[in-house]
Amino acid sequence: MSEGWVAQIFGLELHGNFPASWITGAVDASHPTPAVRAHVVPAEELEELWRAERAQRLVNWRFDDGSTLLSIDRHPDLGYRMCAHRQGVHVVSADGSRVWSCPAGADDWVWQRYLIGQVLPLASVLNGLEPLHTSAVEIHGNAVAFAGPSGRGKTSLGLNLVLRGARFLTDDVAATTVVDGQPMIHSGPCVANLDKGEDLLMGSRRDLLGQPLGFDETGVRLRLRGRTARPSPLRALYFFARGGDYPALRFDELHNVPYATFLQYCFTPFHSSPARMLNQLETLTAIADRVRLFQLSVPATMSASELSGHVESHARDHLD
């Protein structure tokens, strides 16, 4: 996409000044969202924006040789500075209305992966939304979300549901608000990470989903088709577990789920404030009260394609 665009992503009206192939330009005027301006700037300009004095280091992950893998600093007035190995340096203003990024020479699909996966979710939090570590699709007008440990197949399940006719909502990060007591999932960018093994299993069917943005040792980054901007009411949340301990597929409805279970799926744990804690309480309570919750136990040998058929049938039967 050419420079100078606007789109609704993670419950934000995002304005950008850089090429971003994952932007569709979709804006739903009936659901106004907070405006956030994202800019790509030279390293010198980014350094001028940030002053190390009074900044507190919140996250400091390093490689074995001592070099930085990931660091996050917070300044009481300036906001957050986020650095990731080979994925650039990013500053998010304290109110979440501005994002400045310096790609540091990385390919667009690489540095923008971190922008999507960590930087914009922080901006979403600062604007009063609550991002959850879930993937989600829409089935018959209802959002169906999947929560669970990374690498267990949530994305593959979601993409196979899309191949069965579901509408893609978001991969990995689901920005959530509460409207009249109902949790709503806002669309994320039209991208997803497909595991290398699942990509091989999917074969030519992958072309029905979209086009690759790039490949690395873990798999393929896909730009997906068919995204719309409108939020969707969250009606079902599946806690996803896969492994050899499950001899058969099981759907077990859950009740009285502890608050801490939901809390572990909240994004950006390094940001805590009274306002966010109140918003988390409202959001997670609404999910506990208004969303049907299921434990989804999947045998290790079941393919994502086969699983998607069972999940689609289960969701239709329990959401109609």
Chart the SSEs and their pairings:
Blueprint: E1 5-9, E2 12-16, E3 35-40, H1 43-49, E4 56-62, E5 68-75, E6 79-84, E7 89-92, E8 98-102, H2 108-126, E9 130-132, E10 134-139, E11 142-147, H3 154-163, E12 167-170, E13 174-179, E14 182-185, E15 191-195, H4 196-202, H5 206-209, E16 210-216, E17 219-224, E18 232-243, E19 250-254, H6 259-263, H7 274-290, E20 292-299, H8 304-319
Parallel strand pairs: 2-3, 3-8, 11-18, 18-20
Antiparallel strand pairs: 1-2, 4-5, 5-6, 6-7, 7-8, 9-13, 10-11, 10-12, 13-14, 14-18, 15-17, 16-17, 19-20
Describe this structure in words.
This protein has two domains: 5-127, no CATH class; 132-319, 3-Layer(aba) Sandwich (Rossmann fold), CATH 3.40.50.300. Strands 9, 10, 11, 12, 13, 14, 18, 19 and 20 form a nine-stranded mixed sheet that branches. It has an eight-stranded mixed sheet with strand order 1-2-3-8-7-6-5-4, sandwiched between helices. Strands 15-17-16 form a three-stranded antiparallel sheet. β7 and β8 form a beta hairpin. The chain is built from eight helices and 20 strands. The radius of gyration is 19 Å and the shape is globular. It is of the alpha+beta class and 320 residues long.
